[in-house]
Amino acid sequence: AARESRSAGRGPGRTADGHPVPLLLNIGSARDLGTGDAEGVGLFRTEFLFLGRGDAPSFDEQVAAYTAVLQALPGRRVVIRTLDAGSDKPLPFLGLPEEANPALGVRGLRTARNRPEVLDTQLDAIAEAARASDAETWVMAPMVSTVAEAAGFARRARARGLRHVGVMVEVPAAALHARRLLAEVDFLSIGTNDLGQYAFAADRQHGELADLLDPWQPGLLGLIAMCGEAGREAGKPVGVCGEAAADPLLATVLVGLGVGSLSMAAPSVPGVREALGRHSMQECREHARLALAAGDPAEARAAMTGAGH
Ligand code: PEP
Ligand code: MG
């Protein structure tokens, strides 16, 4: 039966030898859930609730938006990311000053330095929605750079009764300290879009630098490997929710690096499910070894062909 459902392009993600790899969705609202057979949500980008308006959404408004997603997925994991404003997502009501380098400025969790009440209200609303649903509510902060920031976020979230608290790895310093971050939080979620931007000092919206932002860059894969290794040691989940997770062949590399779940836009799920279903964990580890050892993205991709794929 498992084989039938897989050949029909459905069912949970797993390697050819049966290691589960949950394939989760990146969403901006309940509308993005589609037909509803998702294994869960790996990235709920809550900023869409905040963007393009003159004031913050109220507590009640937020509870309604989070509840709409949580109630659609009883028993499933839903990872809610707290507000990721600033940089390419400006938010007028936060009253942030103009910055010369917004990508290196007050963005993500850093906005809570000036406006802590915005984060506190959001955490209150997430906790309220979590209490009223049967979903497994996970919460994480974007743009965390230090262990102290992770610890501070965890304290605030746990004080509200949230039990699965994590941080995103989007800054190289966070990857370097993955082990120490996991001493403070329950899981890591690697945002490869920003991690690539900051690791290669290349604006993610700069078309001419696309080669540096290629998720097959061995330097980026090395940072992901550090996170995977730390997760294995700590026995805590490490996922990827950036664009890298949506590339079927790269998904096998990520799993081989120790990544336990992959989150992507719904249309990418079938291709990734199919690729994982064709490779054993042993093969994924071999893909990871070859990609890490490659000199550049082209060589990393070519090495997969050499490995018989
Ligand atoms: C990322 O940076 O990879 C990520 C998933 O977050 P966003 O694309 O929303 O910045
Ligand atoms: Mg990001």
Major sheet description: 8 strands, parallel, barrel
- Distinct ligand kinds: phosphoenolpyruvate, magnesium ion
Radius of gyration using CA atoms only = 19 Å
- Care to count the β-strands? 8
Q: Hey, roughly how much beta strand do the residues contain?
A: 5-15%
Low-confidence runs (pLDDT<50, min 5 residues)?
A: 1-8
Q: Which strand order does the major sheet show? A: 1-2-3-4-5-6-7-8
Number of helices: 13
Query: What best-fitting shape do the alpha-carbon axes yield?
Result: globular
Helix content: 40-55%
For the residues shown, what is the average pLDDT?
Answer: 94
Elements, N to C (H/E): HEEHEHHEHEHHEHHEHEHHH
State the assembly state of the protein chains: single chain
Spatial gap, N to C terminus: 27 Å
Structural class: alpha/beta
What features would you describe in this structure?
The protein has about 300 residues and is α/β, with parallel strands linked by helices. Helices cover about 40% and strands about 15% of the residues. The protein is built from 13 helices and eight strands. The chain has helices spanning about 1-5, 60-70, 110-115, 115-130, 145-160, 170-175, 180, 190-200, 220-235, 250-255, 270-275, 280-295, 295-305; strands at about 25, 40-45, 75-80, 135-140, 165-170, 185-190, 240, 260-265. Strands 1-2-3-4-5-6-7-8 form an eight-stranded parallel beta barrel, surrounded by five helices. Helix 10 (about 250-255) links the parallel strand 7 (about 240) and strand 8 (about 260-265). The longest helix has 17 residues, at about 220-235. The protein is globular. The protein starts with a helix and ends with a helix. The relative contact order is 0.13. Mean pLDDT is about 95; it is low at about 1-10. The structure holds phosphoenolpyruvate (PEP) and magnesium ion (MG). It is found in: Cytoplasm. This is Phosphoenolpyruvate-protein phosphotransferase. Its cofactor is Mg(2+).
